[in-house]
């Protein structure tokens, strides 16, 4: 058993949305839909919860895209702050008229 990797099936957005809508709009039980699609019921419950919270933005891709966007925004802000600090150091380290620095 060691060394054997568990392969997780990946489902596209359309499949997940259709499965959720079978429960929410079709009036079918989540456990029955999950069984008919060959997935675990908990997976369908998680999809349903995510779709309820995020709507059409749910199931964007293979990773946590919203987290990546957030991290990129933080990085951009940090880079701007660094540039401002570099300019401030340059301004305050210039020698004054009497020859000494501030």
Question: How would you describe this protein?
Answer:
With 102 residues, the chain is mainly α. It has helices spanning 13-24, 30-37, 41-54, 65-92. The mean pLDDT is 83.
Give a nutshell description of this structure.
The protein has 4 helices and no strands.
What does the secondary structure layout of this molecule look like, with pairings?
Layout: H1 13-24, H2 30-37, H3 41-54, H4 65-92
Helix pairs in contact: 1-2, 1-3, 2-3
Helix proportion of residues, in percent? 55-70%
Query: Which series of helices and strands comes N to C?
Result: HHHH
What integer is the average pLDDT?
A: 83
The count of helical stretches stands at 4
Category by helix and strand content:
mainly alpha
Uncertain runs: none
Oligomeric state: single chain
State the major sheet: none
End-to-end distance, in Å? 69 Å
Overall outline: rod-shaped
When the domains are counted, the total is 2
Strand content: under 5%
Rg over alpha carbons = 26 Å
The count of strands amounts to 0
Tags for this entry?
single chain, 102 residues, mainly alpha, 2 domains, 0% strand
């Amino acid at each position: 058993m060691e060394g054997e990797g568990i392969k997780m099936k990946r489902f596209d957005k359309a499949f997940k949305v259709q499965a959720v809508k079978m429960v929410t709009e079709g009036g079918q039980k989540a456990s029955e839909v999950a069984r008919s699609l060959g997935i675990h019921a908990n997976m369908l419950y998680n999809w349903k919860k995510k779709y309820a919270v995020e709507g059409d933005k749910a199931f964007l891709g293979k990773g946590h895209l919203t987290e990546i966007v957030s991290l990129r925004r933080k990085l951009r802000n940090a880079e701007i702050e660094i540039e401002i600090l570099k300019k401030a150091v340059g301004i305050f380290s210039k020698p004054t008229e009497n020859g000494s620095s501030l």
